Amino acid sequence: MREASKSGSEMSESSMDVPETSTADLPKGKLTFSPAWFLWLGLGASATANSAGLPQEFSLALGAAFLTAFLLFGLTAKQILQFGVDALIELYFREYITMGSEKVPERGPVIFVCGPHSNQFLDPVVVSKGTKRDIRYITAAKSLRRKDVGWLFKYAEPVPVERQQDLKKKGTGRIRITDTGRVLGTETRFREEFGSEGKGKYQIQIKRTTGGQGKQSTVTMKVETVVSDAEIQLDQPPPATSSDLLQYYILPPVDHDVMFNKVYDHLGGGGALGIFPEGGSHDRTELLPLKVGVCLMALGAMAKHPQSRVNLVPVGLNYFSQDKFNSRVLVKYGDVLHIDIASPIMTMFKAGGELKKRAVRELLGRIEGALREVTVAAPDFSVLKSFWVLRDLYCPTKKLLEMSSAEQVMLAQAFAADYERVKGDPEVDPLLNRIKKYSRKLSGLGLKDKGNIKTALLVQESHFSKLRLLGRLVARVLYLAGMYVMFFPVHMYLFPVYVIAKIYSLRKSREAVAASTVKIKGKDVIGTYKLIIALPMLVVGHFGCSFLMRLKLGEAPAVAYFFFAPFLQFMVYKGIPNMLEYIGITRTLMLALFTTERAFSLIRERKDLKDDVRSLVDRLEWGFQYQSVKDLQLRRKESWALDSFRLEDMPRAFSNSMALLHDSCFDDVDLDQDLLFRGKMD
C-alpha cells in the first residue's frame, strides 16, 4: 500500500511538473531606434561641420546623407511615392478641384471607374489625390516594362494586364486574303509563328488603305485554324480582302485568368481598384467604347466572394488644356453604383452563357451612363469649344467673371449632356456655327471673350475718357515691362526647360499618334513626357547653377541660391497664367482704343449672339435638367424686375464704339449681376 501510495504520489508530482523552457526561446528586449533620429543627427552633423570650419558643401552633403537615410528607413516606398504624387500635382496644375469625394465609401471593396483617359500616366495620380482610399490600378504590363518610368510604377503595386496589341509582332512573309476567310501566305511560317494551338486564340492584323486620300486603317481578324505554313482559316469572312500581297502582324493569345484572380482576391479583401475602361489613353472629346473587363471584375469578385458587396464609383476627369503646364483639372466623383448579391444581374451572371453576357451588357450600360454624368463629352473639339462659349454667353456677366472651375464644368456639361435632345431643332446648328466663327475671330486676334468684358470694366472706370484710358494702357505696359525685367533671370532659367520639354513631348506625341488608331494629336501623352524631361533638367540645372555660383561668387551666395532660388522660381512659374491673362486684357484694351471699328464689330456680334443664345436656350429648356442652368435663368429674370437703369443716362464722352462696348457686355438683363453697378444696386 505504501509503495502504491508512493508510486501514486510520484505519478501525481510527475504529472504536475512544468517542462522547462529553453532560455533561447524566451523573449528578449530589443533596442528600438526611431528613424526620426536621422533628421536630428543630420541637423547636428551639419551644424557641427559648419562650426568646425569645414566647407559648406561638406556640411550640406552630410545633412543630405542623413536625410536620405531617413527616407530609406523611415518611410515606405508607397509613402515616398505619395509625397511625389502630391508634388507632381502641385507642380503641373494651377488648380486641382474635387467634387463628390464624400460619396466614396470609406471601407469595403470599391472599383473606381475613371474616364476619359486623356492624360496617360497623370490620370491615376489625379484620381488618387482626391480620395483617402489606397487604390491599385489596372495597368498595362507594357508600361511596367518601360525603362524610364516602369520601375517607378511598380512601387504603386499595380495589377498588370497583358494586352494582345502590346505583344504584336511582325509576321514572316506576305499574305493575301480571300472573301471566304482563307489567308494564303508567301514565304510564311504559320505553324511555327502561330503555334500548334492557334485555334480561336491568335489574331492576325493588317493595314489597308481607305478613301481617296490614302488614309490607312487597321483591320484585326481572329484565326480559326492553322492549316499549313502557307494557309490559315479565319473564324468568319473578313471585313477586308486583298489580292495584293500584304505585310501582316501576329497578336498572340493572352491568358487573363491570373490577373482576374488577383483582382477578385483584392476586392474580396475589401481593397480599392482603379480602372480606365476605355483601355489606352486618347485625346478625343468623347468617351471611347467601354471594355467589359470592369464588369467581369465586379461581378466575378462577388461571385467568388459572396460576402463582399462591390461598389463602383464613376470618376470624371475634366481637364482645362491637359497638355499644358499650369493647367486646371476638376475631378468629379459620381453617385455610387451598388451591386447586391441577390440582384437579378448577379443571378444572370452566375447562370453563365447568354444570360451572363446579358448581365455584363446591362452593367456596362449603367457604368457608361454614370460616367457621362460626370464628364463633358462632344462629337469633336469644335463642338466642345462651342459649349464653353455657349455657357459664357448665357451666363450673366458678373457670374461669368466670378465663376469657379467647378461651375464652368457643370454648366458646359449641362449643355453637352442635353445636346442630343435639342440638336434636331433647326436653329441649334446655325447658332453653334455662328459661335464657332466668333471664337475663330477672337483666336485670330489673340483675344478671349472674358478679355472683352474686363476691358469694358476698365473703360467704365476711366469714365469713358480716351485720355484716361490711354494713361491706364501706358501704366499697364510699364508694369509688364517692370515685371519682366525684375524676373528676367528666372524666366531665362525656365525658358530652355520649357522649350526642350515641349519639343521632346511633341515628338513623342507624333510617335504615339503613328502607333495608335484612336489618337488625334497625341495630346494625352504630352503632359507625361513634359514632366519626364523637365524634372531631371530642373534638378541638374539647379545643382549646376549652384556650383557655378560657388566658383564665381563665393560660398554665401551659392548657399542662398541653393535654398531660396527654387521657391522664387516656383512662385514666378505659378504666376505666369495670371501674367498672360493680364497681357491678354492689355491687348484687348489696345484693340478697343486704337481700332474702334474692329472692336465695334466684335462687340456687336457678341451682343447679337448673347441675345440669340439666351432666347434659344430658354425656349428649348436646353440643359434645364441641371439646376445650375435653371438658377441662371431665374437670376436674370429677377434682375430685370430690379432694373431702373438706361444706357442713355450714361456719359458718352468717350465714343459711340466704347458705349456700345459697354452696352453689349452689360445690358439691362445683367444689371444686378454686373460689377459695374454693384454700388448702385447696393
From TrEMBL:
Biological processes, Gene Ontology terms: phospholipid biosynthetic process
SUPFAM superfamilies assigned: Glycerol-3-phosphate (1)-acyltransferase (SSF69593)
Spans annotated as Disordered: 1-23
Residues annotated as domain Phospholipid/glycerol acyltransferase: 111-320
Keyword Transmembrane helix: yes
Membrane-crossing segments per the record: 60-77, 477-501, 531-551, 558-576
Record's keyword terms, sorted: Acyltransferase, Membrane, Transferase, Transmembrane, Transmembrane helix
Gene Ontology MF, one: glycerol-3-phosphate O-acyltransferase activity
InterPro entries according to UniProt: GPAT/DAPAT, Plipid/glycerol_acylTrfase
Domain of life according to the entry: Eukaryota
Ranges of Low complexity composition bias in the record: 1-16
Protein's name according to its UniProt entry: Glycerol-3-phosphate o-acyltransferase
Record lineage: Eukaryota, Viridiplantae, Chlorophyta, Chloropicophyceae, Chloropicales
